[in-house]
Design a protein that fits this description.
Layout (H helix, E strand, L loop, with lengths): L2 H5 L26 H10 L9 H5 L5 E5 L4 H12 L3 E6 L6 H12 L3 E6 L5 H14 L6 E4 L15 H28 L5 E5 L14 H21 L5 E7 L5 H9 L3 H6 L14 H8 L10 E4 L7
Parallel strand pairs: 1-2, 1-4, 2-3, 4-5, 5-6, 6-7
The structure holds nicotinamide-adenine-dinucleotide.
The site of nicotinamide-adenine-dinucleotide has 27 residues, from α4, α7 and α9.
């Protein structure tokens, strides 16, 4: 449609070449789910009638990577992906995994899945890329899911005094690290024609500023993560690769435990800032990760999903 047509009230024609940037149209998937399954069952008595929603969530035979998964939210997300049947690789900084991780890996093995640990550093582009390439090579190039959860909070300090080194470090891990991870994964997905799902762990701090918490680089880095997800979603959509972010609210993990334990009234203050009147538990991010990782969310990309007990709505 020409700009002059718009001015003249002429709706014009949708063109796939010329004025609008050419879009390669993709096929709309047709699946025997829901009403389609009901109609098929009506016309074909041999059609197996069973709930299909579990298939949409299943990750059987898929490979997943989770950064920052030696503990906390990352480890919980790694477990849920393994529960859904994925072969999961956890990436984190320490040379060897934590005792919590060892317990999780044993538990996952008993469930019939696998959870392996790989040491790496998301801020080192070559290093994280090599780690991801190695995981891909072990799996015939197939990486279907990536959760980039590695992150740091930094210290609290007034914006006027915030130390430059700490500012740079927070941006490096939370923003550059997420980008380097996703970049390496997306390269593998494109090369092997995998319509994968990449999930960034941002924070509600990327959309609102936490009241009375002076951690400016954290907030700025998480806004960047949300925008990285949108931008990568635009570039990778034509390859069928989806990129979304999840933004948790206040949750007790080792990241927040130091503050919560050191200031007994803080948990009640944080809890008072959302309509549910409490902070979150680590397991409360499982559902959204399961949904975004699998086929139940195939039309969702570039979204930021806030899981905060409603903190951002008032
Ligand atoms: N806990 C919360 O209230 C909360 C709220 C919103 C968002 N988040 C986000 O969720 C994610 C997980 O947070 P958490 O609360 O589980 O924190 P956590 O500190 O328990 O876990 C973070 C993990 O990231 C790893 N990590 C840090 N730097 C790394 C690097 N350079 N390379 C590889 N791994 C690295 C750490 O070693 C650690 O295992 C973070 O991105 C955090 O910002 C947490």
């Amino acid at each position: 449609m020409l700009a002059s047509d718009m001015k003249n009230g002429n709706p014009g024609k949708l063109s796939t070449s010329g004025v609008r940037s050419p879009v390669k149209l993709a096929k709309v998937p047709v699946k025997d789910f829901g009403l389609n399954a009901a109609l098929k069952a009506q016309s074909d008595p041999s059609f197996e009638v069973k709930p299909r929603i579990f298939e949409e969530f299943a990750l059987t035979g898929r490979v997943a990577i989770v950064t920052g998964a030696n503990r906390g939210l990352g480890l919980e997300m790694a477990i849920v992906l393994a529960e859904l049947g994925a072969k999961v690789y956890a990436i984190d900084l320490p040379d060897s995994a934590s005792s919590e991780f060892a317990a999780a890996a044993k538990y996952v093995k008993r469930l019939g899945s696998s959870l392996e640990y790989r040491q790496s550093n998301v801020t080192k582009q070559e290093r994280i890329s090599k780690t991801i390439d190695e995981i891909a090579a072990e799996n015939d190039g197939r990486i279907h899911v990536c959760v980039a959860a590695a992150g740091i909070l930094g210290i609290q300090a007034d914006c006027t005094d915030y130390p430059a080194d700490m500012f740079k470090e927070v941006m490096d891990v939370n923003c550059n690290g997420v980008f380097f991870t996703a970049q390496a994964v997306a390269k593998q997905m494109k090369q092997h024609d995998i319509a994968g799902s990449i999930i960034f762990i941002a924070s509600m701090s990327g959309s609102v500023t936490n009241r009375e918490m002076n951690w400016i680089p954290y907030n700025a880095s998480k806004s960047a993560v949300i925008q990285l997800a949108r931008s990568m979603a635009c570039e990778l959509g034509s390859a069928g690769i989806r990129v979304n972010s999840v933004s948790p609210g206040h949750i007790r993990t080792k990241m927040t435990a130091g503050m919560l334990d050191g200031e007994p009234e803080l948990e009640a203050f944080w809890a008072s800032l959302n309509p549910l009147g409490r902070i979150g538990a680590v397991h409360e991010v499982r559902g959204v990760i399961a949904w975004l990782a699998g086929d139940a969310s195939t039309f969702c990309t570039g979204s930021d999903i806030i899981v905060s007990g409603g903190h951002t709505i008032w």
